[in-house]
Design a protein that fits this description.
This protein is mainly beta and about 120 residues long. About 0% of the residues lie in helices and about 55% in strands. The strands form 3 sheets. Strands 4-3-7-8-9 form a 5-stranded antiparallel β-sheet, with no helix packed on it. A 4-stranded mixed β-sheet has the order 6-1-11-10, with no helix packed on it. The two termini are about 20 Å apart.
C-alpha cells in the first residue's frame, strides 16, 4: 500500500480534510469511492508491474498520478519462504502541479508512516 497524507498547501505541516468523489486504478476499478472527509488515503499497488496509475476525482476535477517502484524478493529463511516488497517509489507522471506531490518515503514496507504528501 502507498500511504498518502493530504496537507494544506498554505501550511504544509497541517493535515487538510478533503472529500474525494473517487480514487481508482484504470482498468482495475475503484478502491476508494466514498464521500467521507479524509486527510489520509491508502492506495494499492500492482505487485505484478513496476508502476501503477491512479485517478483522483474531487471538486469536479480529475488528476492522474503514476507511481513507479521496484519489486524485490527477499528470502527470510528457508522455512518461511520469500517475501515480496516494493522500494524506490517515484513519481513517473502527475497532472498535479509540480510542487503539490512530495515523496516522503520510497519504501512501501508496512512500518512506514507516510509515503507521499499531496498538498491542496
Amino acid at each position: 500500500m502507498v500511504k498518502i497524507n493530504i496537507l494544506d498547501l498554505a501550511t504544509p505541516t497541517q493535515a487538510k480534510d478533503m472529500v474525494f468523489d473517487s480514487v481508482f486504478i484504470p482498468d482495475q476499478g475503484y478502491f476508494y469511492n466514498n464521500k467521507d472527509t479524509v486527510s489520509q488515503i491508502f492506495v494499492a499497488i500492482d505487485p505484478r508491474t513496476t508502476e501503477t496509475e491512479y485517478v483522483f476525482q474531487y471538486q469536479e476535477r480529475s488528476d492522474t498520478l503514476v507511481l513507479s517502484y521496484s519489486n524485490q524478493t527477499i528470502v527470510l529463511s528457508p522455512d518461511c519462504g520469500s517475501y515480496l516488497y516494493q522500494t524506490d517509489l517515484a513519481i513517473k507522471h502527475s497532472t498535479f502541479s509540480s510542487n503539490q506531490v512530495v515523496i516522503k518515503e520510497q519504501s512501501l514496507q508496512t512500518g512506514v508512516a507516510v509515503n507521499i504528501e499531496i498538498l491542496f
